[in-house]
């Protein structure tokens, strides 16, 4: 009867400009889809060139190599007898579009350009592409000669159209179009499209997955239909981690769920679904049918091919499933760990070095590396040959099989406690015990000689010797002496990263990990070019509150008992002299605000788009039980003074895993000046006037 259609979607770990690797992963996904009986294969957004090409999209080479990859796909026997839907940039009449190229049996059926471009937060698609603004309009696209020679076609349809197969109708959306208020699937569904496809390049943010799942399910809950979503996965060359979650939904319910975090480069979901379930679901929605009778029809590209088989009465179809969401602590354990693995294997380095202070932030970073080792061992145990091959290259041992996370940690992870005369024995012991429990190669060293040498140079030149405040020095002297310690730690971290393996008779170098959290970056509570300056930072987009919860998760799930004392200790930089052998300096006292307050300020500043006055107005209501308006005003002013004084530090912030929507990352997510009038005179006067009125 031709009712049961079998479709495939996938999550691919593509890499920007890795045309060779991207092609191989696309072929693998097609092979898997065909082996499971699929007749339609959907891939992620811009999968041929990789989503994160950025300004490389301007280059004609990127367009050329994308067409060369398309040529390989078209002429391959592997793509026969299955509709393949791939993503790539296309230049049409000298305008660059983000497109889906849909083909079958060496013939291009349709090139569908993206209509709604993502242009907020981390996305800059309008910089490189133009949205297709001609609704339900199709033009002729003249194919390059290398494609003409394979397809025998001179021109193909280009524009906003749908595919009419022998048994159903298929319409495409691309990523942002699902999130738009006027999503194309609404009108397409009213026009009789039964299968919607969405090719995404959607990145991970803590607590975001449910929003994507809800959007997909709601797309077909009101209108009926089958919705297939593909997504990029992994680190494709920058701060973002694309978190897979490929899925298939029908009539408002999920029928197939892909993993959000995994080390598999290729993941394919296949589902067989009954078209009659869509038709019967739609039949009783009278409001939908009334709207459908008046809809402006889409151009249809006729395809002499069916997604079902004629004799399919006995073919089993997929049933709805319950989506399982990760907790935020699980997301922190898995997302940054997978991102680190991609970065490590693709950078061809031999491991990581982390300055481990015995505090929450560096300990959380160490736990993420330990989680990465867990994921690698689990993937190898499950037969992932790619992960095994990468692990062997990293440790330079062709016979190595990672089975124990602690043993793998010993090979790829070096931790270093850099003591000074201001360090306590407690933090030293905590760092050492944690290193023992996760298995890292641990180094203890003392930086006092280097600090005295640097300060000595200054004293020789100027004839003056700076002193800490507790010894009678000014705040300027004390801060400068703290900064010297912090910066020497950065210099030593890079020295040991380059030469530790050499000293141990092993090849390769190490990537330096930073461990400044998102709240400290927002406040500017860090020394410019200290240990926050590193190659990459897996926790730079995560709040202190979430990191504390993650530490508790690691205690319970990894049995890292050393973390208990780390959790209970007050956060401290340990840059000022000890008092009676004990730490007198604490982070929150230094900052003049708590980490909980910082998270609130960060969300209001970035997510709620609040300046000083608006933030004050919101907080006098939020904090009315604990603060007077005058106290709120003082807190808001202090935050904005400190934020603006230290904003320049964000220009040199280590590339960090993006996990939080109030990240102050200056690279492309949070674009602000870095030279402010830090008096905020007009804004603060508005606050003062309101306080006086209250």
UniProtKB/TrEMBL annotation:
The encoding gene: Nadsyn1
Gene Ontology terms, MF aspect: ATP binding; glutaminase activity; NAD+ synthase (glutamine-hydrolyzing) activity
Protein name: Glutamine-dependent NAD(+) synthetase
Gene3D superfamilies assigned to the protein according to its UniProt record, in alphabetical order: Carbon-nitrogen hydrolase, HUPs
Any GO BP: 'de novo' NAD+ biosynthetic process from L-tryptophan
Family the entry assigns: In the C-terminal section; belongs to the NAD synthetase family.
Species for this entry: Rhipidura dahli
Subunit structure: Homohexamer.
EC number from the UniProt entry: 6.3.5.1
Top-tier EC class: ligase
Pathway it works in: Cofactor biosynthesis; NAD(+) biosynthesis; NAD(+) from deamido-NAD(+) (L-Gln route): step 1/1
GO cellular component: cytosol
Keyword Ligase among UniProt keywords: yes
Highest taxon above the source species: Eukaryota
Domain CN hydrolase: 5-275
Alphabetical keyword list: ATP-binding, Ligase, NAD, Nucleotide-binding
């Amino acid at each position: 009867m031709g009712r049961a259609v079998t479709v495939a979607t996938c999550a691919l770990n593509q890499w920007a400009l890795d045309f060779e690797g991207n092609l191989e992963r696309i072929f693998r996904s097609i092979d898997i889809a065909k082996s499971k009986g699929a007749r339609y294969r959907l891939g992620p957004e811009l999968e041929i060139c990789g989503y994160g090409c950025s300004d490389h999209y301007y280059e004609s080479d990127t367009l050329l190599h994308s067409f060369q990859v398309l040529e390989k796909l078209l002429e391959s026997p592997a793509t026969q007898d299955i509709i393949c839907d791939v993503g790539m940039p296309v230049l049409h009449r000298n305008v660059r579009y983000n497109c889906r190229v849909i083909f079958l049996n060496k013939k291009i059926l349709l090139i569908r350009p993206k209509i709604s471009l993502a242009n907020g937060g981390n996305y800059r698609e309008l910089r490189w592409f133009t949205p297709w603004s001609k609704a339900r309009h199709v033009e002729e696209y003249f194919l390059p000669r290398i494609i003409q020679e394979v397809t025998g076609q001179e021109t193909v349809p280009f524009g906003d159209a749908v595919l009419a197969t022998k048994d159903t109708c298929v319409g495409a959306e691309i990523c942002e179009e699902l999130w738009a208020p006027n999503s194309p699937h609404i009108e397409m569904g009213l026009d009789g499209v039964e299968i919607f496809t969405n090719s995404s390049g959607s990145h991970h943010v803590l607590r975001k997955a449910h929003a994507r799942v809800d959007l997909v399910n709601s797309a077909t809950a009101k209108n009926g239909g089958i919705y297939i979503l593909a997504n990029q996965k992994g680190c494709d060359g920058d701060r973002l981690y694309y978190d897979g979650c490929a899925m298939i939904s029908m009539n408002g319910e999920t029928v197939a769920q892909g993993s959000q975090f995994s080390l598999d480069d290729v993941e394919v979901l296949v589902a067989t679904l009954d078209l009659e379930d869509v038709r019967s679901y739609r039949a009783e929605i009278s409001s939908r049918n009334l709207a459908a009778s008046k809809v402006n029809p889409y151009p249809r590209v006729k395809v002499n091919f069916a997604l079902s088989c004629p004799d399919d009465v006995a073919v089993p179809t997929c049933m709805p499933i319950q989506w399982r969401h990760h907790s935020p602590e699980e997301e922190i354990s898995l997302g940054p760990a997978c991102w680190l693995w991609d970065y490590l294997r693709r950078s061809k380095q031999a491991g990581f070095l982390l300055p481990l202070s015995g505090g929450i932030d560096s300990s959380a970073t160490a736990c993420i590396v330990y989680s990465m080792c867990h994921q690698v061992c689990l993937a190898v145990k499950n037969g992932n040959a790619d992960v095994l091959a990468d692990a062997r290259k990293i440790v330079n041992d062709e016979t190595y099989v990672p089975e124990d996370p602690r043993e793998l940690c010993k090979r790829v992870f070096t931790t270093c406690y850099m003591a000074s005369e201001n360090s306590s024995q407690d933090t030293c012991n905590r760092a050492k015990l944690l290193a023992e429990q996760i298995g890292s190669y641990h180094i203890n060293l003392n930086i006092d000689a280097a600090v005295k040498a640097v300060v000595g140079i200054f004293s020789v030149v100027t004839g003056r010797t700076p002193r800490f405040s507790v010894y009678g020095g000014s705040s300027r002297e004390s801060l400068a002496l703290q900064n010297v310690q912090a910066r020497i730690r950065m210099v030593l971290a890079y020295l040991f990263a380059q030469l530790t393996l050499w000293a141990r008779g092993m090849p390769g170098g190490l990537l330096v990990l930073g461990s400044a959290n998102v709240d400290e970056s927002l406040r500017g509570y860090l020394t410019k070019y200290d240990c926050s300056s590193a190659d990459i930072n897996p926790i730079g987009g995560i709040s202190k509150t979430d990191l504390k919860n993650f530490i508790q998760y690691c205690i319970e799930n990894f049995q890292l008992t050393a973390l208990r004392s780390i959790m209970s200790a007050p956060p401290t930089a340990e840059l000022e002299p000890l008092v009676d052998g004990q730490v007198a300096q604490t982070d929150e006292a230094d900052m003049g605000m708590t980490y909980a307050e910082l998270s609130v300020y960060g969300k209001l500043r970035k997510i709620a788009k609040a300046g000083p006055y608006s933030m004050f107005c919101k907080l006098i209501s939020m904090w009315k039980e604990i603060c007077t308006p005058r106290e709120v005003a003082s807190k808001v002013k202090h935050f904005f003074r400190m934020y603006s004084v230290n904003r320049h530090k964000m220009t040199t912030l280590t590339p960090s895993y993006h996990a939080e929507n109030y990240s102050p990352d200056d690279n492309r997510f949070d674009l602000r000046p870095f030279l402010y009038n830090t008096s905020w005179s007009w804004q603060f006067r508005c606050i003062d006037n309101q306080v006086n009125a209250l």
